[in-house]
Amino acid sequence: MTEHETGPEGFAARLAELEAAVRARSTLIPRLGMVLGSGLGDLAALVRDPVVIPFPELPGWPAASAPGHAGRLLLGHIDDLPVACLQGRLHMYEGLGAHQVVEPVLLMHRLGARTLVLTNAAGGVDPSFEAGTLMLLTDHLNLTGRTPLLGPNDDAMGPRFLDLTAVYDPELRSRVRAAAEAEGVPLAEGVYAGLLGPTYETPAEVRMLGVLGAHAVGMSTVMEAIAARWVGMRVVAVSLVTNKGAGISATPLTHDEVLEAANVAGPRLAAVLARSIRELPRDA
Ligand code: HPA
User: Which of 38, 69, 89, 200 most suits a substitution to test ligand 1, by most atoms within 8 Å of the C-beta?
Assistant: First the structure.
């Protein structure tokens, strides 16, 4: 099967199937979707009284294989706001196609979410970033060589040629910035380079990413952000820098280090997101 056979033209049928499976469990109409990255699953505690659906209980979704990813869809409330929250995500390095890893985001949109908050664990490319730095994404470099929009388009869902001038919504960014300031949490800003993984980068690659204008690097987020923009969602994203990039750090990188740093700094990110969401305009 070529990728385009299940690309944009295939989404509508898949989403109808997924929507039906969710609707058998919950009638909640989320206003906001949230994706929690590596080691950030504890942020799901923000979601009150959730209906919890493990990925394999949704048609065609594999169990999340990455350690630190619970692999569950939660439907519940943050304060009074109905939300859908993905605790863990799907990655292309698991062997999934670009069209598959964006299904959760498109499903959240289909269920009602029009705003999307993405989080991820990332390596620092900017040498000033210490482990634990939070970085608001101003833009991204899609260096995966993939796109979820490959193949015949479904014009009813989104445009063939999508403008990516402002993937990360300037208004939402200023709200998150204000929330961080109010929480007393330092928040850096920069460009996220999305790579396929699953290897961490070589030191030469990290140097290259710096030359290209990246401040952080990771293995997720860009496919989801593209798909969300395609269907017209407003997107905001925050990286938790769990380690200095290869070669900036003198020590070898490990996933345990990533999870540990995410656990330490996760509550700061949770505080910022909780306040941002509390102060989101309810008509957004
Ligand atoms: N590189 C890519 N992805 C990552 C890293 C990294 O250094 N740290 C956490 N996710």
Answer: 200
8 Å CB contact between 273 and 45: no
Structure tokens of 155?
């014009």
**Cis-peptide into 198, omega within 30 deg:** yes
Atom of ligand 1 nearest to the CA of 218: 3
Residue pair 235/228 in contact by the 8 Å Cβ criterion: yes
How many C-beta atoms surround the C-beta of residue 60 within 10 A? 13
Per-residue model confidence (pLDDT) at position 250: 83
CB 131 within 8 A of CB 242: yes
CATH topology for the 8-278 domain = Rossmann fold (3.40.50)
Phi, psi of 246 (to 5 degrees): -55, 135
Question: What angle in degrees, to the nearest 10, is found between the helix axes of 103-111 and 8-23?
Answer: 60
CA distance 110 to 221: 19
| pTM passes above 0.85 | yes
Structure tokens at 5: 């056979």
pLDDT at 26: 97
3-state secondary structure of 177: helix
Residue nearest to atom 10 of ligand 1 (CA): 122
Atom 7 of ligand 1, nearest CA residue: 123
Q: Average pLDDT of each block of 10 consecutive residues along the chain (284 residues)?
A: 64 96 97 90 87 95 79 94 94 95 98 97 96 97 97 96 98 96 97 97 98 98 98 97 93 87 90 90 62
Determine the pLDDT at residue 253.
87
pLDDT computed for residue 223 by the predictor: 98
